[in-house]
Design a protein that fits this description.
Low-confidence stretches: 69-76
Strand order of the largest sheet: 4-5-7-6
Helix content: 40-55%
Structural class: alpha+beta
Distance between the termini: 43 Å
Radius of gyration: 28 Å
Number of strands: 7
Largest sheet: 4 strands, antiparallel
Length: 537
Amino acid sequence: MSNLSFIREPFTERERAILSNYFTNTDKPVFGLINLPDVVKGALFARYSRSDKSLRRLFLDEFWIDTPDSAGTSTADGLNTERAGRLYDKMILDFGDDSVAQLGGAHLACEQVSNLLAKFIEKGRIASYLEQSTRYVYYNRKREGRYGYLTPPEIESSSCCALYREFMDALFDTYTDLQQRLIPVFRERYPRTEGMTDGAWENTIKAKACDTIRGLLPASTRTNLGIFANGQYYEYLLIKMFASRNQEVLAYADMMLTELRKMIPSFLTRVDLENRGRAWSRYLSDIGDDMERFVPQPGAVLPASPQPNTVELVGWDPDAVRRIVRAILYEYSDRSKTQLDQTVSRLTEPELGQIVRAYCGERLNRRHKPGRAFEAASYEFDLLSDYGAFRDIQRHRMLTIDWQRLTTDNGYFKPAILEELPAEGALYDGILRRAQQVFETLRRELGPDTAQYAVPFAFRLRYAITMNLREAFHLIELRTQRQGHDSYRRICLRMYELMRDRAGHGLLTDGMRFVDDNFYDLARAEAEKRKSTKKGQ
């Protein structure tokens, strides 16, 4: 840095005193913005792109009123927030410049949402989410005399309400019963090993029990969801939510809009305008209605019994290796892709492999990932897995992932340990067979969308994933680590095998050095041991 010269902008002592409250420094070309409302930070950057002034000078000239007793258009400390709001209105409403809505964000907590609504919200790519875990939290606690499940208005106002609540209570009773039965079994089967603290062992046993019985949690299970996103994401999310006919979705859309307008009001001006957001919501709703006319009738229903998860590779690029090698060379070459095609076509397989291996480099851990050239080839999978596994895989939002309605028609997943314990296995099977009967009643009386609330996580959902090779590196290596749930580990291992064997892309998958194809009785044991060691327990 000492050898790099840059111009230090002249500020008066008074200006430096003001700037020091809102910028991390006043004399360097790199600085952060602090203590400013999102509307001011966003408006500053919006103006930044159309001005030859520095950001700090823009702030002083256009967003600060330097009068001790400022009032009216400014806050008590001199910030001209009204001007910032007007600028956003002009940029978004008048000019339609959506990108400026990416310049401000908000942290939002959505509590007591059903898992159905959580997945609806989490479908958006450009946001960060944190959701309550099913691995570390027991869901058998009652509040106000009820287990933690949602009875949606569609069911509460129907003749099916008593049936639904009776089944939900039975489902959570079974969840509680199995938890109490399995904890002693696991303690006896997996005694604490040398080097593992009591706390780490108890957490490992708890995780094992939660993993085993999570299939009994229904889609109506309430969860807590934390979101951090920019204004553009929230605008589109709310427009999609207002296009829904689901009462829970609509109720949360109203609450979310109200709270977001307390934090980033200028970013959400279009959401409920009749000729803007509402028109967009109607557009999305009309498409959904029209598409229902083209949907084929439901296929054969599987019996309510355990069924294996399935993974099919339905699409891939036969010429993926050469396409990726071309993309690798492109970045380091001065030739066009057409010219590079001619070069790559003359390479032998050993030469192609040498280039791919060099591009992967010496990966010391799974976080060392190849670059964007690996995005030149994609794979399309069709999956049928338990909803619990889907919830974990769905978190990889950079994938293209779409899913069908939740149903009991595709059978359910049963953990291997319950096959070994006849009494506990019978409890599990019995309540899931009952789930199919309740679901069929709700579907007949209230429709397939509302009936989803009664479906436990164990039942299998059909969904499709399209991902490029670079995304596959991240998903497969992460989701095959030993601490992962057995269900989704097997799914990702199958993806890896299909890419290697069916697509014939072993030259590409060889770079996935951190795929763990072993299986472990106590998946969390090593992770808990490391955690307790760090804490000095």
